[in-house]
Specification:
The complex is a heterodimer. By secondary structure, chain A is of the alpha+beta class. Helices cover about 30% and strands about 25% of the residues of chain A. The radius of gyration of chain A is 23 Å and the shape is globular. Chain B has one domain: Arp2/3 complex 21 kDa subunit ARPC3. The relative contact order of chain B is 0.16. Classes of the chains: A alpha+beta, B mainly alpha.
C-alpha cells in the first residue's frame, strides 16, 4: 500500500505533467492571463531597478564629464564633415528607394535580466512590453545589428530570443553575392548558415536579413568565419559570428512596424 | 498546515522570486542565473520534510515557469521531484554543517536533469549535452553559494512560527 506521502508526490508530478501538456498544445496556451499577472507584479519592479541602475551608472563624475566634452567637440567636427557626405547618401537612397534601418519605428528598451531556466535557452528580458507597443515576433536590433526576436510579451517586459539560440532561424543573404540562406543559432554564441540554393560562400562574407513576416530586411546579422566543404550533400554550410556581442547587451530597439518595401541593394555594414 | 504557515510560504517565495528576477538575473554570471527559488524549496524540505518540499516545489516552480519562455510546468516538475527527495534526508539538531550544501548541490543537479529530460520528451532543440553540462555546473555552483544565506534563515522562520514543530 502507498503511504500518503508518496501519493502526494505522484499527485504533484501528475499536476506538473498535465500543465506541461496543456501549455504545449498548439493554438494558444490557457495560461497567458496568469503569465501577464506575474509580469504585472515583477515587471514594474524590474523597470524600477533598471532605471535606478541607469541613474547610478550615469551619476555625476567630473572627470568623465570633461572626457565627454572633449569627445563631443571631436565628434561635432566629424559630424559636420559627414553631413556633406550624408546629403549625397540621402540622394542615393531616394534613388534606390532604400529603407535604412534607422527609419523603422522602434521602441527603445534596456536589458533587465539575462538567462533562462538553468541556462538552456539564450534569452534576455527587456523592460518594454505590450503597453509600449511590443508584440511577439518582432525584430530586436542594436547599434551593431540583429539581436533576436521577441517571443513572450507581457504588459511591462518581453523575452527576446537571441540569434545565437538553437531555436532561432532567420533568412539571410550574403552581401557580396546576394545568395539566399538560413542563419540558425548554434547555442554556443555563434551561427550556422545554410545556403538554400547553390552558391558560393567565403570566409569574411557579411550576412544581412532578407526580410520576412518577422524580420525587417537589411539588418546586419554576422560574418562568415568558416565554410564546411559540402561532402555527400548539396547543401553548403558555414559558421558565422554575430556582429552583436550577445554577452554584453544593454540598450536595444524593438522594430514595432514592419517595413513597406524591401531594399534593392544590400549594404555592407561598416567594419 | 495552518493559514500562518501558508502565508509564510507565500511571502518567502514571492520575496525570493522578486530577488531572483530583479537582482540576481541582472548579474552577468556565466552559464545560468543563480536559482534562489530552488534553494528556498530545499530549505523548506530540510526543515519540514518531503510533503512540504514537494508542495513548496510545485508553487515555486509555477512562479518561475510563469515568467519564462518554456512550457509551463517544466521547472515545477523539477522542483517537486527534488523538493520531495531533499525532504527525505534525515535532518536534526545534530546535522553536519556540510549537509545543507551537499543536499542543495545534489538537488540542483537533479533539477537540471529533470528539466533536460522533459526537454528531450518535448523535442526542445536546446537540450544538448553541452548545454546540460554547462547548466548543471553553473546551477550547482550558484545554489551551493546561496545555501549559507538561505537555509538557516528559512529554518529559523519555520521554527519561530511553531517552536514545537517536529519533523514527521
Amino acid at each position: 500500500m502507498r503511504s500518503p506521502r508518496s501519493t502526494l508526490l505522484v499527485l504533484l508530478v501528475l499536476t506538473a505533467f498535465t500543465l506541461i501538456t496543456l501549455d504545449v498544445r498548439s493554438g494558444g496556451s490557457p495560461f497567458d492571463g496568469l503569465r501577464s499577472a506575474v509580469d504585472s507584479v515583477v515587471g514594474p519592479a524590474q523597470r524600477a531597478v533598471s532605471g535606478a541602475v541607469t541613474a547610478v551608472t550615469t551619476a555625476g563624475d567630473s572627470e568623465r564629464v570633461e572626457q565627454l566634452e572633449a569627445e563631443n567637440a571631436r565628434l561635432t567636427g566629424e559630424l559636420r564633415r559627414s553631413e556633406a557626405l550624408q546629403r549625397r547618401v540621402d540622394e542615393l537612397d531616394r534613388l534606390l528607394e532604400l529603407k535604412d534601418l534607422g527609419t523603422y519605428p522602434m521602441v527603445p528598451a534596456r536589458v533587465a535580466a539575462v538567462g533562462s531556466a538553468f541556462g538552456f535557452a539564450s534569452t534576455v528580458t527587456i523592460d518594454a512590453g505590450s503597453r509600449d507597443g511590443v508584440e511577439p515576433g518582432q525584430t530586436v536590433v542594436n547599434g551593431e545589428g540583429l539581436v533576436g526576436r521577441t517571443v513572450r510579451v507581457g504588459p511591462f517586459t518581453s523575452t527576446v530570443l537571441l540569434l545565437t539560440d538553437p531555436g532561432f532561424t532567420a533568412g539571410a543573404r550574403l552581401t557580396r553575392e546576394g545568395t539566399l540562406g538560413l542563419a540558425t543559432g548554434d547555442g554556443a554564441g555563434g551561427l550556422t548558415y545554410q545556403l538554400v540554393e547553390g552558391g558560393r560562400v567565403q570566409t569574411g562574407d557579411a550576412l544581412l536579413t532578407t526580410g520576412s513576416q518577422t524580420f525587417v530586411p537589411g539588418v546586419p546579422v554576422g560574418r562568415i568565419t568558416s565554410v564546411q566543404p559540402a561532402v555527400g550533400t548539396t547543401v553548403t554550410t558555414a559558421e558565422a559570428a554575430p556582429f552583436v556581442d550577445v554577452s554584453a547587451l544593454d540598450l536595444v530597439g524593438v522594430v514595432t512596424e514592419p517595413p513597406r518595401g524591401t531594399p534593392r541593394v544590400p549594404l555592407e555594414p561598416a567594419p | 498546515m495552518t493559514p500562518r504557515r501558508v502565508a509564510l510560504g507565500v511571502a518567502v517565495l514571492l520575496t525570493a522570486l522578486l530577488a531572483q528576477t530583479v537582482l540576481l538575473s541582472r548579474l552577468p554570471l556565466p552559464g545560468a542565473t543563480p536559482d534562489l527559488l530552488l534553494v528556498v524549496v530545499v530549505a523548506f524540505a530540510l526543515a519540514e520534510g518531503p510533503g512540504s518540499g514537494a508542495v513548496t516545489g510545485l508553487v515555486a516552480g509555477l512562479l518561475a515557469d510563469l515568467g519564462a519562455d518554456h512550457a509551463l510546468g517544466r521547472v515545477a516538475l523539477a522542483y517537486v521531484v527534488v523538493g520531495y527527495a531533499a525532504g527525505l534526508v534525515h535532518d536534526g539538531p545534530d546535522r553536519s554543517v556540510l549537509l545543507p550544501p551537499a543536499v542543495v548541490g545534489l538537488a540542483a543537479a537533479g533539477a537540471v536533469t529533470v528539466f533536460a529530460a522533459v526537454g528531450i520528451l518535448l523535442g526542445d532543440p536546446r537540450t544538448t549535452v553541452a548545454a546540460y553540462l554547462r547548466g548543471t555546473a553553473a546551477t550547482v555552483t550558484y545554489c551551493v553559494a546561496l545555501t549559507p544565506l538561505v537555509v538557516p534563515a528559512v529554518g529559523a522562520l519555520v521554527r519561530r512560527l511553531d517552536p514545537h514543530w517536529r519533523r514527521p
